[in-house]
Structures are given as structure tokens and as C-alpha cells.
## 1
Amino acid sequence: MFRNSVSRRNLALISVGLLLLVATTAVLVPKGARADEGVPFKGTFTAAASVTPNSGNVTYCGGPLLEAAVEAHGAGYSTVGALSFSLRKTIDLDNAPMHGCLTLTAPNGDTLNAIYDGTEDAPNANHFNGGAGTLTFTGGTGQFRDARGSAHFTAVFSGIYPASSFLGGTTAPFQVMAFYSIEGTVSLQNSDQ
């Protein structure tokens, strides 16, 4: 009888211990990101851009008709890997709004698309200016198919030779170097991303 009560007590203690172990493991094991929660997205990108008067009255991603058209290309690295950067936007040179379409492309060709909305500060005497805004992820291809989410971006733009551009009275495009930092959340179909 004494032996039987010890066994029951040990069995009860072992059972409680195992339940605590299972509960602790369930709490401490990181869960995979569900598609509706998203995963952190951070990245930095460097791009070169060409700015021209918007004489063709183009708009991008349903945005407003603004004064200048911009095409930018570059590359960088993010929490989802290396990505090239391709942006078409319009800007208003006086009031500083910016709107366009951004495509980030992985080395395997998968694309992540976003609507780009922001504002740009006036340039300083050395033709550096800042900007900030929001990216709204709208889908893509491959691993980015049906991607959703948003991110905040900050940027520094550096105008190169403005006097030789349309700003200085010639017909040449205004050349710009752009440096972007992006941080937000993106929901991907594949929870491992």
C-alpha cells in the first residue's frame, strides 16, 4: 500500500511536470507568421533618378497629375533578401507631394509591388533634400503574390548638376541620387517569408 501511494504521487508529479513542460514549450516556441499578421519588412536602397517636366501628363497607380515625372532605378537589401528598385512617380516641384508605383524585384524575378505616396522637402543650398512617405503593398508575383501591408519610408535626395537640366533652362533631365530606408510589415502567402 505504501509503495502504491508513492507511485501514484510520483505519477501525479511527473504528469504535472510534463504538462508544465508542454505549456512552457508552447509559449516559448516562436509561432510562424500567419498571412494576416504579416512579417517585418526593413530595407535600404540606393537609386539613380531622372526627372523631366510632365509634358505627357502621365500619372501612376491612380495618382494625381503632378508637375514632373520621375523614373528611378537602383538596388538594396531587405529582410526578404536582395531586391532591385524600380520607381515611376510624379512630383510637384513647388508643393512637394509625390505619388507613384514601386516595384521591388528579387534575384529570381519575383516582384513585390507598392503604391508610393510621400512628400519631399525643399532642397538646401547643396541640392540635398529629404522626403518621407508610405508604401502600400499591393501584391506581386511568385513569393510576393497577394502580398499586402504597408511601410514607412524616409529618403535623402541629392540633385546633380541642376543648372545643366531643365531646371537651369536646358532640355536635359534633372539627375538625382536617392537613398531610401524602409520599415513596415508585409503579409506574404508563404509564412516562412
## 2
Amino acid sequence: MPLVIVITGASAGIGRELALQFAELGTRLVLASRDATRLAEVADAARERGAVDTIVVPTDVGQLDQCQALIATAVSAFDRIDILVNNAGVSQWARLDQLTDVSVIERLMRINFLGAAWCTHAALPHLEASRGRIVAVSSLAGLTGVPTHSAYAASKHAMRGFFDSVRVEMADRGVSVTVAYPGFVTTDIRMNSLGPDGQPLGHSPVREGEVMTVEECARRIVRATMKRERDVVMTMRGRLGLWLKLMAPGMVDRIAAETIRRGR
């Protein structure tokens, strides 16, 4: 029986590429994001890549009722959910002392953390029934503090604590949890990173040609999902940082600051 996979933030970036790569496994896809037009384009591409069936559900994960409706629609369409991929997110590029619209902090928490928590809560009974899998796309910023990303890092730290806890809670129910920690990835998402005024930057501060491709990032997430791996820390710098944070936290701070300065 084809796996039923729900992917949030599926209209662009990592989410779009995850949809295409999961499609190659002959799956049924439920694609969610706020952009219905781009979702439809991804759905067409996924069918061409091998998806057995695909539906689109325009969803703002920052709204509890829409998260619940997404899961209900998925179950109504396919009678089950095997994998939930919490990928929807928005980034930030501004120092805290530069913020002129402090409400951006709440916005980041609602989309990056609460949306993932709400979708997961709604999907849990169905994932338990299928002994399914939960995937959370976090960030290296979920492992350490990152300058110009304070609220974003907070939302990703929240994801880590939440999904580490859910993993333990659901272990005896056969539900696995995979948390992915990408670094910089070549997507157009950073064009929409929120600046000091809470509006999209309109440009990418990252050296896009010198960071991981979105195809490689998605490939690692798909592989880890199918193997039910616990964590996917995608860069050597990130893995090294986990150890250094215990022994030399000041060094990790300097590495994080230099990474942001260089944009890679």
C-alpha cells in the first residue's frame, strides 16, 4: 500500500524538493502551504515524478484551525497518514536591537514551532494507527544561538525540545521521530526572510553557490525518514559544534558569528 505523506511548506524550497523525492517512491502526497498556485505546480511535478495520487490543501500553519483541517482533509482523502513532515517555516535576518516590529517574534514562533506542534497533535492518533513517522525540519540554529536569528533560533530550539519529548512519549506506540538540522541550503526562501521591520528582505544574504543544494538536503531527509533515524545534522561544522558547545561554548559563539558574517 502506498505511503500517505503530509508535507507542510511544500510550495517551495526544501518542502517542494521533499515532495518530488518522496513522489519517486510511489507515494500519496498531501501538500500544504499558503500559496495555492505554487502548490498546484508542485503537485503536477510530483505526479510526473511518480506520485500515485496528490492533493493540495492551502494552509496557514500559524492558525490552529487550519492545521487541524489539514490533517482531517488528509485522512478524509486517503483514510490514513503514514508520515507527517513538519517543514513549513519562515526565517529571520535581524539583530534583536534592530527590530522595529517586535511582533515578528510571535510570528516566527507561530509558524515555525506552534504550527508543527498543532499539526503533530492532530495527526498523532492516525500516526499511531499506522505506526508512522514524524519528521521535523529544524535548523542548525536549533542547536546553538545564532546572531541575527535570535527569534528564529528560539523557535527551532522549541522544536527540538518538543520533538525530542514526543519521540520518548510515542516510542512504545511504534511512532518514530526524525529531526533534521540543515545549515544554509540553496533555496529562494531567504528572499523572504524577515528583516527588522517584519517585512521580507527581498534578497539573500547567503552565498548561495557555496552551500548545500536543496536536492542534497532533501535526499538526506528522505533517507533518514525511511530508515527512521533519530537526528540528521547535515554539516561537519554542525556536528563539531555539538561537541564544542559542551567543552568550549565561547568558540561555538565565534563560529556562529563568523558563519553569519560570511554567509556560508
## 3
Amino acid sequence: MKKNLFWAAGIFLILLAGCKTTDTANSGYMASVEISGPRENEIRAMTAAIFLASGYEQTGDLIFEKKGSAWDTAAYGGWSGNAVWVRMRVHLAMLDDTRGVLGCDAYELLDRDQWTDAREQKFFFEKRSDCKKLLDEIKTKLDSPDAAAPTHKIP
């Protein structure tokens, strides 16, 4: 029995190690990309547009939230049964006028809709692929020659 458990744990670790994406900007965030060409306001506008199109609400400057899946609630919600929300904090560090690093960290947000203060806890790796996918989409849209930055107003 112990031998089977040992093998199962080993296989799980191998699969887990194989399920990572490369972070091209190596910025220290859960995921990041380096963007060249557009100015800061264009990057911010496209970031908001992509997150909003993906079902997120903008709750602050480059902070986006959406209700987590049933799996998120089951895995992270505890005994309360309250919905878990996912918060994405996007960070933009401009290296010069037309080059910047766009980073993203994901958090589970508990008790968001309660009268008490919501509790935020950073995901270790669970939402990394979601962050990376959104950042890659932003980079792709901004890199396309006919990309016009959307005219989204940042709250």
C-alpha cells in the first residue's frame, strides 16, 4: 500500500512540474510579459478591455474580480459555502516610454459579498495559467499592426 502511495505521489509531482508556463519577463509575478511599442495609457486600456471581455469586473486601477467556479468555491470556500471570487492584480512597470513589463498575481477572495471585510489570499500556482493566458492575449493584441487601443475609462 505504501509503495502505491509513493508511486502516485511521484507521478503527481512529475505531472505538476510539467504543467508550467514560461514567464518571458521573469519579473517575480505569477505571470508576466514584456510589451514593446505601445505607450502606458494604451497598455492600461487594452488590459482593461481584455479582462472585461473575459468576464471580470474592474474594481480598481488594474484590479479585476470575477466570481470563481463551483470548483473554486468547493476547494477554497471552506465550510461557509459562500462563493469564492478570483481577484487579479495587474502590475505595469514601464522600462521606458514604449517598453514595459505587465505582471499579474491571482488571489482567492473570501466573503466578498458579506458585511465583513473580504479576506484575500494569494494563489500559489492554481491560477497561473489564467494570468498567463490573459497577459499573452493583451500582448498579442497590442503587437498586432492594426491594434487600436480601446477607449475604456479607468475608474
## 4
Amino acid sequence: MIGYVTVGTNDMQRAAEFYDQLFAVIGAERLTETQTYIMWGTSAASPVFSVIKPYDGKAATVGNGVMVAFLIDSAAKVDALHKKAMALGGRDEGAPGQRGEGFYAAYFRDLDGNKLNAYYTG
């Protein structure tokens, strides 16, 4: 049901470098790019993730309680994605581990403070 998710940024170049390297871990790449947004995904027919400069021209801010979750196909890739996020300057919000029966997850924030989750079910 989800087509795409966007998070705001105040520094497009910094966000682009972070997500280019982060998403390379799971095989996603830039699909579309303009002056105001960049979208990453594995195909245009699958859900995509983007960073965007807010339309109203005001500073991007982090939504309290907002989180974007990425479904990953293995626990090892969840570990790798979290590790990469930390290496790129992201902030840990919950190290990789089992969070309940069949739910393995890691939580982190990007360079703009947006909360992200990588999870595997199985």
C-alpha cells in the first residue's frame, strides 16, 4: 500500500551522500533526482524513499513520533545497515536485535535527525 516515504533535509548534498552509501548496503540506488528531492529504491514499481527540501521553503524539522521502517531480507543485512548508518554519522536509537518473536530490528537516526528502522521478519 505504501508508494513512497519522504523525510525533510536542510542539506541535500549531505543527505544524498549519507543515503547513497547507506542504501548501497541493501542494493537500492537513486531512481529520480531534481533540485528539491532525491528518490532511492530498487525499482520504480516498488516503494521508494526520498529526501526533500520542504515545499513551503521553511526549515525541515523532525516529526515527533514519525519513523520510517525498511523491510530487509535478512538479519545480517539489518546488522550491516545499522553498522553503516553509525559509520556515516547516524545516531543509534536501538542496536540490532530480536524485539519479539520473529521480529529482528535496529533503530537509528540519519544526519538530519529523522528516525529510521531496519527490520527482518522470519
